[in-house]
């Protein structure tokens, strides 16, 4: 797992959900804004905070694709 990524990097963070959840893992994609705990701001502006012991993977991802402009 890469933990030396600079804050502001666009990442995917995969983490374990609590026991009894509908599935064992989930992901969040967005801007890395913290490391203790890990924090990622998603495209809606929500910040997901995850303790290091629940993190399975943290990887950089390319910039979010731009939506095409409507034609006039």
Structure summarized in a few sentences:
By secondary structure, the protein is mostly beta strands.
Task: Describe this protein's structure.
The chain has strands at residues 10-16, 25-35, 38-41, 47-50, 55-60. It has a five-stranded antiparallel β-sheet with strand order 4-3-2-1-5, with no helix packed on it. A hairpin with an 8-residue loop joins β1 and β2. It has one domain (10-60). 0% of the residues lie in helices and 44% in strands. The protein has no helices and five strands.
Keywords:
72 residues; mainly beta; 5 strands
Strand order across the biggest sheet? 4-3-2-1-5
| Strand content range | 35-45%
Major sheet size, sense and barrel closure: 5 strands, antiparallel
Overall spatial form = globular
The number of helical elements comes to 0
Blueprint of the fold:
Elements: E1 10-16, E2 25-35, E3 38-41, E4 47-50, E5 55-60
Antiparallel strand pairs: 1-2, 1-5, 2-3, 3-4
């Amino acid at each position: 797992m890469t933990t030396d990524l600079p804050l502001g990097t666009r990442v995917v963070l995969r983490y374990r959900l609590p026991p009894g959840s509908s599935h064992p893992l989930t992901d969040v994609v967005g801007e890395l804004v913290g490391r203790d705990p890990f924090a990622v701001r998603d495209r809606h502006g929500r910040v997901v905070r995850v303790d290091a012991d629940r993190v399975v993977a943290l990887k950089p991802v390319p910039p979010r694709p731009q939506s095409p402009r409507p034609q006039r």
